[in-house]
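Following the same procedure, the fold was encoded as tokens, giving this record:
***
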Amino acid sequence: MRRRRITAFLLTLGMIAGLFSACGETKETGDKEKIPVLFSIPEGSEEKLTVTGKAVYTGEDELTGLYRDAAGSICVRRYGEVSLLNDAFQPVEWKTAAEEESPRVVYGDLELRQDKLVVRGKEIPLEDHFGEEKIGFWSFEGITYLVTVVSEYDIVNIEEETDRYTVLYPVTEKGLGDPVRAEGLTASGGVTGTDGRWNYFIDGQSLFRTDGKTLQDFGNLTPFGVSISALRGVVPVDGDRVLLLSGSNLFLFTAGETRAEEPNGGKRRNVVLGVEYSYSGFLSDILTKYNLSSDSKVEVKEYGSIEKLNLALLSKEVDMVASIDAGVLEGYAAKGLLAPLDDVIGETIASGEIFPNILDAGRINGKVYMVPDAVMLGGMMLPKTVVEEKGGRFADMKDLIATLDGLEKQSFYYHLTKEQALTNFLHNGVSAWVDRDKGTCHFEDESFIAMLELCGRYAPDQDTVFANESSGKPLFIPFRRMEDPIGYLWLDAYEDVKGSGKTTSSYGLDGRLFPSPTEKDGEFALLPDMVFGVAEYSDAKEGAGEFLEWLLSSACQDLTEEMTVNMAGMPVRIDSFRKLAEEKAAEASAYYPRIDWEKAAEDGLALYQSADHYGGLGSEISKIVQEEGLRYLHGEITAKQAAEYIQNRVSIYLAEQG
């Protein structure tokens, strides 16, 4: 299931208010089972269509809307401007348009805008409610419906989506009528379109259409270059053709009765890339660029959970896997499910063009099993003067704790709960206590127990954190990212919590990043945008290798603006990193001319090269540490007992990996 960050307050409020309500005749819906079913399409009954598709227009700027206006003309919108499309689906003339008054979706004389429904010129306000998304219109048997997707969440784990279903509201002159449900359809892609007969929607990575009786599948869109996360519109053109807007590209898809030429020209099959439940905006962008320009195509499949991705790999459904957490791929490699990349892209790995420390972080038993597209740097943060007094790093956890005990203010403990503190510490990684090559671990180490006990000093609950919130940063931050080559210079100024008597600390306002002393030799953590591996059994290693070579090439790695805009991180190529550092330094020098930016860029490079391991929370080992660590923080066991239990469980896990 997809996860979304939702607060407990919003969850409670949403449950009280009901899943959906609007002005007019709309009645509040109850739970799913109380909503009448308009029609039901059995799972697995969809017809598979053979489809051709191509990008018919590529703009320089992101396009924000696609719709057919009341006169029947197809319109495309970008920020502040709108244009009609000609017969070749090219914009005719861009004209200024008020963005807030521009319709998101148009069907005949109906418009769905940001917060209102317009029915034949009459505006009907729509309220936003927890778990509900209004996405467009469908038409069945002459009745037009507003399409909404409702998500329900676990009442305990409020980040876990437990159900998602489609609810339809008939549109009347007075507003919205009573809701009905379309069972078997989940328009999860956030866009819909209708021509009165066929109703189009996105689910997962695929385009579907239905008339309420049958369901037809256009197939996975990603090999054609469509970025699912950037979809902004679906408009039927005529018969079996449909336009899709994704990012800055317009795509035209045509459904055929006979088998059409494959998107890759029939030369070889697509490379299937399996991901858990989401992937980054940067990866989505570069997949679009790759699939639009390469003969080899990469098809993305989302599996919804790590368990389903595991099964897909074991069932040989995917050729590659990617994750935001390197621990997931470490587990696959340990089980022999991944091929050494030395055998897939050996020349690139041996070229000297990729940072050696990044390759080494993905190395197990002498072989590289994973590479990232981009990474951030992770460490801890204290005032500059404190870090400089220690020579830039701490010898071990005891050294860090002694320094923290000597700080003039201890209010930093009130900025996080105990549980949040543990998560922060673990983001720096657990490799200090695990030897993957030897299959051993040592969590009964004094430094690990000291880390658990330090987490136990933090706030007992969220109410305590809220009561001591501050507009600034606490003196000590157990986990902090560096997002660009000179980003270590932009660490936030410090302010004490309210009621402390001072606005700032006597240590000054600058912060400095330093490596977590819980790690091997105190080095920084690598925080990947995504890490990639190739399935050992795959017969598409050649195509997978071509994609990885492009991913690590200057053509991709030099997309520095896209990297920083999408918060992907820094390039893994040495020349691309230097280029980005020069660009950032040149930008900053106009505002801060007194800083030695050449030295700043070299300092950033040195920090980057010192990172030697992947951080993150996705690995099975991290999950074990969290489970037992939380038992200690909740008072169920001692820190020493937690360390013993973690040692036993991780030892068993490592033995099972072989």
Observations:
- The longest strand covers residues 161-172.
- The CA atoms of residues 45 and 133 lie 26 Å apart.
- Residues 639-657 form the longest helix (19 residues).
- Residues 1-29, 258-266, 497-504 have pLDDT under 50 and may be disordered.
